[in-house]
Amino acid sequence: MQFNELNLHHDLLSGVDAMNYIQMSPIQELTIPIILAGKDLIASAQTGTGKTAAYLIPLLDQVIRSQSNQTSALVLVPTRELAKQIDEQIEGFSYFINATSIAIYGGGKGEDWDQQRKALVHGADIIIATPGRLMAHMKSGEIKFDHIKCLVLDEADKMLDMGFSDDILFIIKHLPAKRQNLMFSATMPKKIRDFANKILNHPEEVRLATSKPAEGIDQQFYLANDTQKIPLLAHLLKSADVQSVIIFSSQKMMIDKIIRALTKLKWDARGISSDNSQEERENVLRDFKNKQYKILVATDVLSRGIDINNLSHVINFDVPRDAEDYIHRIGRTARAETTGTAITFINEKDQYRIRGIEKLLEKEVEKQSITESLGLGPAPEYKVASTKKEFKKSSGHKNKSKRRFFRPAKKPSEN
Asked: What is the Cα–Cα distance from 211 to 331, expressed in whole angstroms?
């Protein structure tokens, strides 16, 4: 189904066409009519399937038809990067219409607070915000959302994982009771359903290929000790046709270490973590998108909602803590029906996490062991285990924490 088959305002259709949106993705085809009908919605689909456009396009159609001078839509997102990206997408879609938006997020300079406050007071058609930052502004008492017609929770599962549930509920208490509610999530665990029951009113539900990576991703698992990871990484980067790659690490402390190692090997790499200022993160991400350098090293702050074209590789320097995070990480590549490669390094202590990932994938992935052939020594042996406890048992590890608190019985002479 094409966008011009929908009953959208002709000026909005011109903007959609200018953004090269012609054929609707499955999630867009299923959800846009529901949103246009004014119904509440809970929708889940894998990352990279077009969820953002699925709600932005009907929201902008409502904006142009209402011609209101008040904020009519509020979009809550987990990260500043996603807020900024959505704001840029609105700018593209609304090129031919009179629609305004503003992104509200923390981490910037002091003057950013005053600029955001003034913008919130004067209003914009659509506000995109991280919950914590918006709640901080609202507590000043100057911000009013009396005319909000639609609330969107984007990447709802990630927001709950980050502990934003109380902030979201605080914000909702200050919104009109009569409004449309849209919840988009890459996954649909029980906690999301329970949260949806608190805020959605008889919602329509759309579920599309939840927790499955794109078919175009070539997934590769490599066994390696921690000391073998960087030379193995260097070998794979050298042998692969790398156009652009994001290397994910669960530990912030590893970002600079990986970058220093790659720099010594003449690779141009830069990094992003929550320790960077907003300006630094924006500059690094902008230069990466503009192909100023090929390698970006990041924590999971970039695993959700960031749209980077032609990303050829994703490398997990370590196994993500949760199976769902694996899906989000590798979902940065092979977007919009392209192809890409996802590489994951598995050390001995992270092996138990692989069972959960393969359960989500509904298939086993070959574990490659090439370190010895590269002169790096033998790779760790892969031991199948579904839990950390099982892995420790199979590996001969003992639970030291239990021994630490063990007290021997008193001797008879001490009684």
From this structure: 10
